[in-house]
Amino acid sequence: MEQIQQPWPWYVAGILIGLIVPALLILGNKTFGISSNLRHICAACIPAGIPFFKYDWKKEVWNFFFVGGIFGGAFIANAFLMTGAPIEVSPALQSELAGYGLSDYSYMLPKELFSFESLLTVRGFIIMVVGGFLVGFGTRYAGGCTSGHAIMGLSNLQWPSLVATISFMAGGFFMANIILPWILSL
Amino acid sequence: MNNEKVQNIDSNTACVNESTQQHPAWYNLKYAAVGIIFGIVFVKAEIISWFRIQEMFRLQSFHMFGVIGTAVVVGAISVFLIKKLDIKTIHGEKIKIADKEFNKGQIYGGLLFGFGWALTGACPGPLFAHIGAGFYAVLVVILSAVAGTWTYGYFRDKLPH
Q: Is A183 at the interface with chain B, CB within 8 A?
């Protein structure tokens, strides 16, 4: 039990996530991909006559069940499988974040940035609202996210997925190192 | 770009559901079971952590590279074996995986998603996991992501692909 309560090493997580690919295929010919759910939500709730959202989303309802499972699994892990210890973060990042007044390591997100109150700050708004918008817009424009392209696509040796994955990483490196420091200092 | 070509890449940007079989709705619970394992891994390996993502993009930790790299290797071996051994689904259906076709969206959209990934410290899966873990402020991020997806759908014909 103690081992389970400690943070799991990367190879345990990597193997389990990799096995989701064959699990979904063998359970019912489903390809791993999370960001499609954002499209299915649009198709189900606010299609607004847009061709991109006119399709039989009910056929994809399995993916809502999959995401529902993610909710449940995260709940279980958080409620029963944690030590409650603060998250360990590299000293280099800690000292950088301290410069922006960020020092709360009690949860996996910095609570100073991710809260309803933080929405009223410039940096909180950019990170939560603009960031979320870019995640939704970018994943659909790219045709997938980390699961659909980086894991499922690369597993199936699809070169367009390699292009997408390199683009994800390039965008992330640029934002984290060049733009984000400026946003955090706002 | 004309509308027809955009429609042709639809199969690329859509989640392609290869199964043609009909099953009762409760059969979907098997996907929920897989999702539960995924959700537990997300939290326990700190994949949903904004800090881990910042470390990844600053090359301050190997953790996330290890997670994604291992997942790709395990996934690739699995797909190879499924094809090589012609493994069927549990319902006896042949397993098919659609090819991804290239379009420029994978570059432009990929870069934009990368920006969002570094800002929010989360790709779509972890966003949902945060709600399960009881961190409700992330609902705002999810709603914004839905708005982003909707906006893409609205302007899709006008965007370079």
A: yes
Q: Which residue of A has its CA nearest to B101?
A: A160
For residue B112, give the chain A residue with the closest CA: A138
Task: Provide the token pair at B65.
Answer: 């590279």
Separation in Å, CA of A133 to nearest CA in chain B:
4
A123 in reach of chain B (CB within 8 A): no
Q: Which amino acid is at B49?
A: S
What angle (nearest 5°) sits at the alpha carbon of residue B59, between those of residues B58 and B61?
Answer: 115
Look at residue A116 and give its three-state secondary structure.
coil
Chain A residues touching residue B133 (CB < 8 angstroms)? 74-75, 77-78, 108
Closest CA to A110 of A9, A120, A123: A123
pLDDT tens digits along A6-53: 999 999 999 999 999 999 999 999 999 999 999 999 999 999 999 999
What is the reported pTM?
0.94
Per CB-CB distance under 8 Å, the chain A contacts of B159 are 141
Per-residue pLDDT tens digits for A62-87: 999 999 999 999 999 999 999 889 99
